[in-house]
Amino acid sequence: MDRDLVEAARHGDQGAFMDLVRSRGGRLFAIAHRILRDVDLAEDALQDALVIAWRDLPSLRDPDRFDPWVHRLLTNVCVSEATRERRRTANLRVLPLDGPSAPDDLIGVVTRDQLDQGFRRLTPDERAVLVLHHYVGYAPTEIAEMLGVPPGTIRSRIHHAHRAMRAALDAEARNAKAGGRTA
Amino acid sequence: MTEHTDIDRLLETWFDDGPTAMPDRVVTVVADRIGRQGQRHTWLLDRRPKVNLFLKLAVAAALGAAVLGGAIFIAGRQTQTPTPTPIPAPSSSPGASAAAAGSPVDDALRATWKAFAGENPVLQTGAGPVSLQFNPLGTGIEATNFGPGHGYASTANETGADRIEVVLDRSGGGCTAGARGVYRALLSDDRSELTLISESEDCSNRGIVLGRAWARSLADSSLVGAGVVDAIAPAFKVALPDDSYETRTLPDFVEIGGTNGSLMVFKNPQPFVDACSTDEERVPWQPGAAAFIDAFRANDAFEVSESTPLTISGHDAVHVQIGGKADYARCPGQELYEYTPKNCECHFVVGQGYADSMYLVDIDGDTFMFIISPLGTPESERPIVESIEIPYEIPSR
Fold it and tell me: How far apart are alpha carbons B395 and B88 in whole angstroms?
C-alpha cells in the first residue's frame, strides 16, 4: 500500500521512498515538463523536488496527502526555476517560423507554436496553475489549498492566463488573415 | 473558472501531448542524493511537540558538554582533522593555534563571508553584494559576484599565526595560475567578522577582491554561531552558541537550525483567526508588536504571559510567552494554527500545552520576532538576545 510506503519513507526508509519515486516519477516529470517546457529543466526540477520531499517528509502529517504535497513541492521548484529562466530569456526575441504550416491531428502546428509562445509569456505562477488545473485536473479550490493562496487568487490567475492565451491565438488568426506571420 | 470553453479543450489537448516518462537517470541521481541527504527533523519545519523532546535532549547534551567539550576539542586540534569539530573558545585570530605551514585554514574561517563592494574601475564591476567562501575542508577559497573571471579560485593554506597563503588554481582575471598571495586574517572578538590584509600578492586583482572586511554568513553552513543573516531585510547580526548550523528560509522567515537549538526570526508575524482551522484566515493586519500580542490575548486557544519590556539593539522591545492551551476543547489534541509572516503563504503551528518564548521589536514600521528554541528562561536566552544587532551594516568598501 502506498500509505505504508509513505509511512516507511517518513521514518527514513530510502527504499520505500524510491518505490514512491518510481511509481509517480512519470506523472511528476510530465507536470514539470509542462510548466517549464524544457526537458533538461524539468529533469533538474524533478530531482530537486524529490530530494526536498525526502528531506521534509517527516513534516507530512497525513500520508494520504502525499501526492498533493509532492505536487506542491514540485510546483514551487518549477515556479522558482521558471522565474530564473524568465530572467535569463527576458531579452531573447522569438523568431517566426518560416513556410506554410501543415495541419496535424488535433492542433495545427501554427496553433501549437502560438500556444507555446503565449504560454511562455505567462508568469510562472500562471503557468503552474494552468498545468495543475488543465493537465493534473485539480479544481481551483484544491490548487488554492495546495499552494496556500486564496481560491480567488487561483481563479484570477486562471482567468488572466486564459485571456492571455486567447490573445496569443487571436493574434495568430489576425496575422493568418493578413497573409503573414510575426513573432 | 468552471465553464468549459474552447480554450479549456485546447489547453487540455495541448498538455496531453508531451513526454510522460521519467528519464532513468532521475532515479539514479535522486537515489544518490538522498543517500547523502538526511531527513529534516520536524521541529525545523513546524514547531511541534517534538520541540520538547528536543529540549530534553538538549538539556542532556548541555550537562555532558562541560565534561566532554574540552576533550573533543583537544582531539580535534591535535589531529588537525578536516571533519567538523567543536570550535574552541573565542580567540582573536584564526592562527592562534600556530598551525604548521601548509595546513588547512582554521575551522573558524571555513564559512561563507559577505561584504558589499563598491564600484571598481579595475575589475570593471558595479557596486553590489559579494561573498567569499572557504571550502569545508579549509583548503580552498573562492569569491563570487565580482564579475566573470574574478572568482580567483585558489588553494588556501594556513602558514602561521594569523596568516594564510593562497595559490591561484587557474589563469584568469588578469592573473596566471600559481600566483601566490599571503594575507593576514584577523577575526573580530566574536568571530563574526574577518579582515583580510594583503601582505604580498602576485595577483593584484585578487588582492582587490580578497583584501577587505567580511561578515560571516549564517545563511550558509558554519561551525561558528556568530554572524550575519541577510535573508530578510534589514540584515541582522547575532551570536549563537557554536554548533553546526543549517539555515532554512521562507519569505520573511529564517531559521538558523543547529544540532543543539535554533533561532527563528519572523518579520511582521500575522496571527490566524481560528487556531483549529486549516483555512488559515488571518487576523486583519495591524502593525506593531502590541497588536500581535493583543490578538493572542483575544484568542481563547492560547495563553499569553505578562509581557516584559526590554531593549534589543537599542530599540524598545518586549518579551512574552505564548502557548497553546492544553487540550483546547474545540480541537483537542490538534496542533494550533498560530501565525505566519505577513508576506509568506505559510503557517506555523504550536502543540497544545507548549509555549514559545518570543522577543518582539518594532523597527521602522516593521515588527521582528525572535524565537529561541528549545524554550529556555529569559536568563539563559539573554546572551543571544543581547547579541542581536539589527539593522546590521554588512562591511562595505
Answer: 25
Question: Considering only residues 38 to 67 of chain A, which have any Cβ-Cβ distance to chain B shorter than 8 Å?
Answer: 39, 43, 46-47, 50-51, 54-59
Helix (H, G, I), strand (E, B) or coil at B218: coil
Q: How far apart are CA B185 and CA A160, in angstroms?
A: 55
- How do residues B344-371 score in pLDDT, each as one tens digit? 888 888 878 888 889 999 999 999 999 9
Long-range contacts of B313-318 (CB under 8 A, 24+ apart): B313/B236, B313/B361, B313/B388, B313/B389, B313/B390, B315/B361, B315/B362, B315/B363, B315/B390, B316/B361, B316/B362, B317/B289, B317/B359, B317/B360, B317/B361, B317/B362, B318/B289, B318/B290, B318/B293, B318/B359, B318/B360, B318/B361
Residue A88: phi and psi, rounded to 5, are -65, -35
**Chain A contact for B4 (CB, 8 A cutoff):** no
- The amino acid that residue B57 corresponds to is L
The type of residue at A37 is R
How far is the C-alpha of B42 from the C-alpha of B373, rounded, in Å? 13
φ/ψ of residue B342, rounded to 5: -55, -35
Are B275 and B331 in contact, with CB atoms under 8 Å apart? yes
Residue A53 in contact with residue A73, Cβ under 8 Å? yes
Cα–Cα dist B107/B80, whole Å: 10
Report which of residues B258 and B17 the model is more confident about: B17
The pLDDT of residue A113: 79
Distance CA B272, CA B299 (A): 9
Contact B47, B349 (CB under 8 A): yes
Interval B312-348: pLDDT, tens: 999 999 999 999 998 899 988 777 889 999 998 888 8
Nearest CA in chain A to B346: A148
Q: Could A106 and B19 be called an inter-chain contact, meaning their C-beta atoms sit closer than 8 Å?
A: no
pLDDT band at B128 (very low <50, low <70, confident <90, very high): confident
What percent of chain B clears pLDDT 90, i.e. is strictly above it?
50
Grid coordinates of B179: 600566483
Integer Cα distance of A20 and B294 in angstroms? 45
Gap between the Cα atoms of B321 and B19, Å rounded: 53
| Contact between chains at A51 and B45 (C-beta distance less than 8 A) | no
B37 touches chain A (CB under 8 A): yes
CA distances in angstroms from B220 to A157, B44, B246, listed in the order given:
35, 16, 7
Q: Which residues contact B363 (CB under 8 A, 6 or more apart)?
A: B234, B315, B390, B391
Question: 0.80 cut: is pTM over it?
Answer: no
Strands B253-257 and B246-250: antiparallel
The CA distance from B54 to B134, in Å, is: 31
